[in-house]
Design a protein that fits this description.
Elements (H helix, E strand, L loop, with lengths): L1 H21 L30 E4 L2 E3 L8 E5 L2 E5 L7 H10 L7 E5 L5 H4 L2 H8 L2 E5 H8 L23 E3 L4 E4 L2 E7 L8 E9 L2 E8 L19 H14 L4 E4 L7 H4 L14 H28 L1
Parallel strand pairs: 4-5, 5-6, 6-7, 11-12
Antiparallel strand pairs: 1-2, 2-3, 3-4, 8-9, 9-10, 10-11
The protein binds zinc ion.
């Protein structure tokens, strides 16, 4: 897996340079790496441990430095969002157990979107915990083919992962309910056909907060927004996704990669005695606006290029 990742990183470094000149914002190196411009995007910090911690209410961080996983705890068992790489599973398990919870109590497994950096560990987690795997309709085929039916990366065998049976298909706006926790699945497609932004309400010190876990608003290197034969409605989906993201009330800003919301700078401030750094409504608004601009300028560029042909 390490070799694969390194190969993957090297290939990205070659293709990533072009895009980085056009749009040096984070998140535009495939699949959804935050480490644009580095020699091997994402590959080093994706497997690097990060301290598991309670973020707010019953939301815990159990991911690596570069790949976010969230545990939503309830008295009836837990919900895990993102299984990450195939090799990430022992780390996620260890993080959950360090926090004093039982891995086997994971009852429901969800994902941000069907790319291998968020869903390749799902088969293993299902096997070890018996969790029910729930996936947004547009991503089900990709998950069940182990990445083979992905519109962008399906032909690349190095990005495949164990095909995983989905136990329940989700649709836009549906809720996942367990032990008093209610998560809403918002389809914010484009990055993948079933890219999902999760929302929930949490309580902390007598106050209630809206949590948003962004699926990914990023246009990856090589994505065709115009005349895309394998995903004709991609640009419309992105546009709709941004309308959804802009409509969501957000106090606590989270996402599929910690880099979306600056986790590494916020985490050290968590125990410093001030306000909870993950409460960041302005950061959320700025991020969504920035990513929408990046999408619009890439769309404009590709539209202009298509007209010249
Ligand atoms: Zn992705």
């Amino acid at each position: 897996m390490l070799t694969r990742l390194m190969l993957f990183g090297a290939a990205l470094a070659l293709s990533g340079g072009l895009v980085a000149q056009v749009n040096p914002a984070p998140g535009n190196v495939a699949p959804d790496s935050a480490a644009a411009g580095s020699a091997a995007p994402g590959s080093t910090d994706w497997s690097e441990p990060f301290p598991p911690h309670r973020m707010i209410g019953n939301v815990y961080y159990v991911g690596s430095r570069g790949l976010a996983s969230y545990l939503i705890t309830t008295p009836a068992g837990h919900i895990l969002i993102n299984s990450n790489l195939k090799t990430s599973v022992p780390l996620i398990r260890e993080s959950i157990e360090k926090l004093g919870f039982h891995f086997k109590d994971v009852k429901i497994l969800l994902i941000s979107h069907a790319h291998f950096d968020h869903d390749a560990g799902s088969a293993e987690i299902k096997k070890l915990t018996g969790a029910k795997y729930m996936v947004m309709d547009g991503d089900v085929g990709v998950v069940e083919s182990g990445g083979q039916s992905d519109f962008q990366y399906g032909d690349d065998a190095t990005l495949r992962y164990p095909a995983t049976k989905v136990d329940q298909v989700l649709h836009d706006g549906e809720q996942v309910v367990l032990g008093g926790a209610v998560l809403t699945a918002h389809k914010t497609a484009g990055h993948t056909r079933g890219c999902t932004t999760w929302t929930l309400r949490v309580s902390e010190a007598g106050k209630s907060y809206d949590v948003v876990i962004v699926g990914s608003p990023n246009v990856n290197s090589g994505y065709k927004l115009v005349h895309n034969a394998s995903y004709p409605q991609i640009a419309d989906d992105y546009a709709r996704g941004f309308q959804v993201l802009k409509s969501l009330p957000c106090d606590v800003f989270l996402g599929a990669h910690g880099s979306y919301y600056g986790m590494e700078t916020k985490y050290p401030r968590l125990n410093a005695g001030g306000a909870n750094p993950y409460i960041d409504p302005a950061g959320y608004k700025n991020y969504v606006a920035d990513r929408e601009q990046a999408f619009l300028s890439e769309l404009q560029k590709q539209t202009a290029a298509a007209k010249k042909q």
